Structure formats: C-alpha cells, structure tokens
Amino acid sequence: MDILEDLKWRGAINQETDEEGLRELLNEKKISLYCGTDPTGDSLHIGHLIPFIMLKRFEMAGHHPYILVGGGTGSIGDPSGRKTERQLQTKEQVEHNVQALTEQVTRLFGGSGHVTFVNNFDWLSQFNLLDFLRDYGKEFNVNTMIRKDVVASRLENGISFTEFTYQILQSIDFLTLYRDHDVQLQIGGSDQWGNITAGIDLIHKKEGQDAKVFGLTIPLMLKADGTKFGKTAGGAVWLDPKKTSPYEFYQFWLNQDDRDVVKYLKYFTFLSHDEINALAEKVQTQPEKREAQRALAREVTTFVHGEEAMHEAEKISEILFSGDIKELTAEQVEQVFGKMPSVEVSREKQNLVIWLVDNGIEPSRRQAREDVKNGAIRVNGERIQDLEYELDPTAAFDGKYVVIRRGKKKYFLAKVK
User: Fold this and answer.
1) Where is this motif: 'KMSKS' region (predicted)?
2) Of 30, 240, 341, 367, which sits most exposed with the smallest number of CB within 10 A?
3) pLDDT at residue 229 above 90?
4) pLDDT tier at 250 (50, 70, 90 boundaries)?
C-alpha cells in the first residue's frame, strides 16, 4: 500500500489537486513537501498535530518535510476561520513565538536530520512595495481572490487589505520553496485550500504549466456529536506541558468516546492497520476495557511528550483510580490539581473540622462534622473520621499542598503559604 492509500484508509485526505499526478510523482522519486504554521501563539495545540503527523508519515516513507514557521505572514495575520481581524503582534512577540514553535516541532520530529525548518520572514522581508506589486500583485485577479472561501466568508463583516493579501504571501512561500528547495507538495488544513491552489497557480504562471506541484488538505476534525475536536471545558489542549500537563494530555485521549476512538487511532497514531483493526474489534466486543483509548493515550502522549512522561501520566492515573494519592509527588499533585480552583492556607496546625469550614471546603461545622464522622473526608489520601484530628498542612507533598477529597470524586487543593 502506497502512502496515499494509507492516508485514505486513515481518513486523512480531504482534497487533492491532482491525485494521479501526485501518485505518479511519489512513485518516481522521494519528494520535498511542506506545511506551514503561523506564530500566533507560543504553543501549538492538538489541532495542529494533524498536518504535522501527516508530514511525519511522509518522512517515515523517505520523503523530505519542510516545516515553515511564518515569521512574515504571522506578523500580518491569516484571515482563515475568523469573523474579525486578528490583533497585530509586536515584532518581539512574533520572534518569541517563532522560537517557541520551532523548538516544539523539533521535539515532535526527534531532531531528525530529514526535516528542514524555514522562516518566511527571511524572504518576505526582502521585498519593497513596488517589487511586490509589479512581480506578484499583477499575477492575482481580485475577482478570483474574493471567491476563495477564506475571503468570501469575511466580505459581509469586512476584511482589511492586509489580511486580503495573505493568500499572495502564502503563494510566494510555495513559489520560493519550489525554486530554492524543489518543494512540490503543500499540506494544510481544509481551510487552506484556497491559499494552496493560489500558490500552485502562481508557480504555473512563473515557472510554466509543466511545473509539477500539488496540494493536499486534511479534513476538518469533528467529534461524533458534531462538535469541534480539540476543545475541552478548560479550553484548548496544548502541546506545551506548562499549558496542558502530560497527565491532562493523556487524560484527554483516554476519555475519548467509543464512537471516535478508532478514527483518532487512524489519524493520530503510527500503529499498523492490523493493530488498529484489532483495537477496533475490542471496542465492539469489550468496550468496558477501553483498550483502544489506552492505546491512543499512550501513543499520542509518547509522540508529543516522550515515553517517560507517558509512563508518569499512566502512573498518576493508576494512583488516582486507586484513591491512594499519598503516593503522588508534589510535582505530580501540581500536574493533576494545579488548574483546579484552589485556596491558600497557612502553615499552622488546626482542628480539621474548623479548617474545612474556614477554608470554604465545608459550608458549616455541622456539615463538616457529619462528613468526617461518615468517612466522606480524605486528607492527602487518608480517610479521617476523628473529630479531634489536628491537620498539619505541611505534613505531605513537600509541605506545599493539602489535597482534600469529599465524597467519591470531589477534590479540593489547598496551597500552603
């Protein structure tokens, strides 16, 4: 099975400019291809994983991926998928984000020498206005540009000339990479189709109709319930471990719906067809074991954060499932509970009942006494039923935290001042 057939089996192809031409080219030689991302923030999120995993599959098949970080385009803003203008970032913000994203994607590809990083600021910053208008602006028909979905969707509310020119700049990227590095394929999300085809048109105008260049887009990822993939109640799921801890990341994948998990195994993992088919059968016959979800969580967490972080996330999950949280380290407590509402508490020892009320965990002393007597209160994993128990906030987790569990699932984090 060739790589295009594999991608089709995985449901990873939305549109192609010329499937037979691309297949013929891939059979002839190993090609160079690229995917770009703009530095709108200092971390990618899991939605960005899809095209980068696509690049990784091409790399594993012997092809040469180029990853473009848009230091130039990122300074003006991509209009795709937005109803309003992006807020312009300072030069310093863009430079910081470029560096952060480059380091992040480098980790995804394991420092492979088969991947090349480029920054379109290096060539876009060299144009003056007159050269841009004469050499490139003349090649673009405004009537064609406004029919592109990415622009048409903005016409009702308005679009600035700055964002309107984005497709020209992205087209210049493709042309530059084709000329300088023989890059013949651009990959992007489904919202990038108009920009990709504009780049192909520009190459054909500048280099001739015989130039072999192609575009391929990836489907918009939706969950089985029709909502957008990648969002949680807490917001985006980031690749930066400081924004989304490896434990939270692992849990996101572990908690996927049975209706979605096989699709995600195909999209986001490098497991073989046979391995995925076997897991798909387990979803049908033994869904309660959630083996497919565990495999998905292990594979994607390892790809993004490494094997050690994946094993730690698994260990934390097992500890929490058992309820024996006293085995957690202070760092693991921060991973698990760090983003939940918390209170600051003093280091002084205090009667547990009074401490629970004073820190807002129980509404009244009567309720606190009742919960303690009934065994509903655990302090750092230990059930406490003694109404005279004196709580020492510094007794566990390096003296930094007190973790209270009320009932079966409700946790409270107290940070020791």
Assistant:
1) 228-232
2) 341
3) no
4) very high
Residue of 185, 239, 189, 235 lying closest to 214 (CA atoms): 185
Q: Tell which CATH classification among 3.30.450.20, 3.40.50.300, 3.40.50.12780, 3.40.50.620 matches the domain 3-218.
A: 3.40.50.620
**The model's pTM:** 0.84
Q: Cβ distance 77 to 52 under 8 Å? A: no
DSSP state of 372: H
What pLDDT, in 10s, does the model give residues 156-183?
778 888 888 888 999 999 999 999 999 9
178 marked ligand binding residue: no
Q: Three-class SS of residue 17?
A: coil
Give which of 195, 148, 144 is closest to 174, Cα–Cα.
195
Contacts with 352 (C-beta within 8 Å, 6 or more apart), sequence order:
368, 372, 377, 379, 384, 386, 387, 389, 390, 391
Within 10 Å of residue 231's Cβ, how many Cβ atoms? 14
Which range (29-33, 133-137, 186-190, 404-408) has the least confidence? 404-408
256 labeled part of a ligand binding site: no
Query: Does residue 401 have a known ligand-binding role?
Result: no
Does domain 231-322 fall under CATH 1.10.940.10? My reply is no
Strand (E) positions, 150-224?
A: 183-189, 214-218
User: How far is the CA of 190 from the CAs of 9, 20, 38, 52, 215, in angstroms?
Assistant: 18, 20, 16, 14, 11
Q: Is 231 annotated as a binding residue?
A: yes
Task: Give the Cβ contact number of residue 47 at 10 Å.
Answer: 16
Of the pLDDT bands very low, low, confident and very high (cuts 50, 70, 90), residue 114 is: confident
> How is the chain split into domains, by residue range?
3-218, 231-322, 337-416
Query: Rounded CA gap, 417 and 413, in Å?
Result: 13
Question: How many Å apart are CA 61 and CA 204, to the nearest integer?
Answer: 27
239 DSSP assignment: S
